[in-house]
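**Folding the chain**
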Amino acid sequence: RACSSYRKPKRVTLFFEWRAWRAERYMDSRRIFYYKHEDGEWKIKEGQVDGNVSTLTLEIPPGETIISLNPLYNYERLQRYVRSIRKNPYVEAWIAGFSEENRNIWCIKLTDPRVSEEAKRKLMIIARVHPYETSGSYCVESMINYLLSGNPEASELLTKFIFYFVPMPNPDGVYNGLCKLTRVNGFDFSHGNVLTSRDKACKTVINLARMIKPQFALDIHGHMIKNAEQLGCCNERLLREFLKLMPKPDPFNAGKQWKIYYRRYEPIEEKPKERAHYGFRRFCAEELGAIDFLLGFAWFGRKIEEMEEIAIISLKALTTAILRTL
């Protein structure tokens, strides 16, 4: 945050030194910044990179300005958003559990209550397991807003699916500004073992998944790969159908390509609790029999409305692919 008591805008040059391990690996993605003055809109500004230092020059107006690599989406915003949609007749929202620091972990269920749930497909959507990946939060909010918009296509999806959104399973990591973990030396939902972790947030999400028993599990991530989008699935038919349904040319960002992870979950002799890595997606696939799906989107100069559009396009493609193939 840059706080200015000057009466007029002040030209300021900021230097960001990245001391993380192998920081230089992602420096090309650390030249684009977002900034927002108080209640204004997010704006984008390109800086410069030299070694592991990013340099950004801005005209800072009086008051407070937030400067960030990614648009901010914090724990407090999620609480406000959940409160704003709870009275909608298509929404059922509850606190599934709490984090180590006793912050809420919400589950938001969306479906048309007038249609029997027996024939509906259950899709669990989780985002923001890694705190810095704010694109996941914007995607989830956009998906929910679309499903509640009254759009005929969206309303039809609510008659065919039960959507379970877990918008922020790692609220402590978000609140404390961490990168991937739930706390310092804490748990990583993607790369740790969800069955052996004692972390309260992890236990909450795993117990919730066992209760829901989703047929499909979508894990939304952000990343620092400049020229690629991440796409992963354990079902080749669904993966191919999804790609067919995505509009061309690429509506997201010129020059971007899909980085595809196709993974068959072959039987492993080693028991799940004995593995070093047994992440949320693998747990859903192996223990719950769900078809897992991964989407990863980078900000890197995208406007918020573009990220929201990505989310809606992807949701339409995934649900249509499910209905056509499975």
The mean pLDDT is 94.
